[in-house]
Amino acid sequence: MKIKRYFSFLLLGAVLACAPTKEEPALEKLPYFDLKGFIDLEINKLEGDSVFKTSEINGEKQIQELLYTSKDWKEEFVSFYQADINVPSLATAYSTRTTPDQLIHELLPEAKGKVKEITIRYVENYPAWVTFRLKDENMFYQSSTLGEISMNQATGKIDHYKIETTQKVLFLSPTNIKISGIIH
Prior knowledge:
Blueprint: H1 2-18, H2 35-45, E1 50-57, E2 60-67, H3 70-76, H4 78-82, E3 94-98, E4 102-107, E5 115-123, E6 126-137, E7 141-152, E8 157-169, E9 175-183
C-alpha cells in the first residue's frame, strides 16, 4: 500500500511539474507610456558612448568614467524597467493627466502598486525628461526610489540620469544610494 501511495504522489508531482505556468497575457494596446520600450530605444543610441558615473552609498562617494555595453546599460537602468506599469494587473490602476508639455500617470488611492507616479515632459513631441517614484513597504521593510532621465535635444540621446534609493529594514539603519551619470 505504501508503494502505491508513493507512486501516486510521484505521478501527481510529475503532472504538476509539467503543467504550464501562468503568465500575464500581453496587452494589445499599452494603456500608459511605454517606459520599457523608451529605455530600450535610448540604450541602442548609447553604443560607444562613455559615462561619468557618480555612486554614493551612505555618504561614500566614488566617481569613475565607464564605457558600457547595451547589457551594462540595461543593468544600470534596471530601476526604470521596474517602473514600467504596462502590465494587465495595473491596466486600470493609474489616472492619467496631461498638460501642454507633460504626461503624468499617478497611482489611484485605492489601487495597489509600487510605482506611485511617472511623469514625462515633452519637447517637440518627444520625451525630454522622464521621472518616476517607487515606494514599497511592509511590516519589516521600506524602500523608496526616485529616478530621472534627461535627454539632450541636440543629440537626441540621454544626456544624464539620476537614481536615488533609500532602503530601511526593521531594526537597521537606512541605506541611502545615489547614482548619477553624465553621458558623453
